[in-house]
Amino acid sequence: MSDDDGVDASDDRTYYVVSDLHVGGDEQLGEVEFLDELLAFLEDLEHTDENAELVVNGDAFGLWEFTTVEGIEKFDVLVEAYPELFEQLRATGETVPITMLPGNHDHELAAFDAYVERFAAYNVDLVQDVSIERRVGDHVVHFEHGHQQDPNNRIEDWGNQHATPLGYYYNTLVTSRAGQLSDRGRYNWLKDVQAVTPTERMPVWLFSKYFYREMNPLLRYALLPFLLLFNVSVVLVVLVGLDLAGVWSTPVTWTTATLGQFGTAGTAVWFLLATNVAATGIVLLVGVPLYFLRRDVRQTIDRFGVFETDLTVDHEAPYQRAARETFADGEDVRVFCHGHTHRPSVQSVDGGVVVNSGTWLKRLHRRDGVVGILPPVFYPSYQLCAVRIEAEDGDLVVEHESVKKPSPSPEELTLTERLLTLGRKPDPELPEPVVVERDGSVRPRADDRTE
Prior knowledge:
Elements: E1 8-9, E2 14-18, H1 35-46, E3 52-57, H2 73-81, H3 83-93, E4 98-101, H4 114-120, E5 124-126, E6 131-136, E7 139-144, H5 166-181, H6 202-214, H7 217-228, H8 230-244, H9 250-260, H10 263-304, H11 317-329, E8 333-338, E9 345-349, E10 352-356, E11 363-367, E12 377-381, E13 385-392, E14 395-402, H12 415-420, E15 434-436, E16 442-444, H13 446-450
Helix pairs in contact: 1-3, 8-10, 9-10
């Protein structure tokens, strides 16, 4: 049923929104760590007493990450790999409408009409448009995945099966290849490449995982003292230089005399420091001129504009701009709901809110070392959630509801990584619920509980 503006008229319906599940992909990418939680979420919806609708707001599946099958064949691979998921979709869809929008990773859903029929058999209404709108009370909610606001993933010719934005090549050449190679490592970690954002962090993440996961343990533990004491060693290098130059010898003399009082233990510490000082001196001797050379090369490249494409897209500004345009075009539109950037958030803009539904994929939180020059640790966590949107006394309530989330497996972090992040374990919180009032003003939902 639609009103005169072509907006679905479902005033009393509660909407649940999820996005960026990224189910499927080559080999190791096919592992869905949150499958049990997703099945439980769908089962709860199946038995809800609410007049509800589930909107899957793009990137439900990782079709870009399938490189050995083409077109509609990918659907058959998905059904074969995840029979429980599709049967639960069928069961949930019998009592709660399920609407699915394509994202960039599963843009092919918009390119083949056969997908509509295949999903309909599992009670999923696949809408092959960029966006949909739903009326909730006196307001209208705009849903789109969000990749059309990202120049690296924007599909210029929507519905064209041959559409290949920059993100397509990254995922078929890098992400899919990672899924094929992941189980060859000492640990099956390379498949987590999908969780690395922004893309520029990839080299640092690879080096971090090499150091903590793939490096020969004997070599790693041999390097640890040097890396941990690097800052101290730099100071000692300077002091030794002053001593050799005859400028100031007191610190070196005092250190040697002090350590000598502790016998064998003091000698061992002195030997360790001496080794670190020698190694650090060599590193500084080579590294300082290389640093200036690298900086000069980068400045030259910037002058010529060789690399003008910024892979990292602002995860806020493009969506705020799109929301303002959408609000201006639709008088009653007050919520712009998207995914794509994997960051759950609620932000107030002129006349409404921008809501990001987040991701069910693992998220990686960078933790730099507090001492020395050890590689950063990328600590894993999950923020499984569904956005809940409903009308309440003429206003609109927007809330991120937490879904029971899996905990990172103990083997995901080495003992060294756990020690280095002791007391710094991330515990990301979901955004606080908000109320969008009839005039478009936004206030925290907490206000209702304090009156």
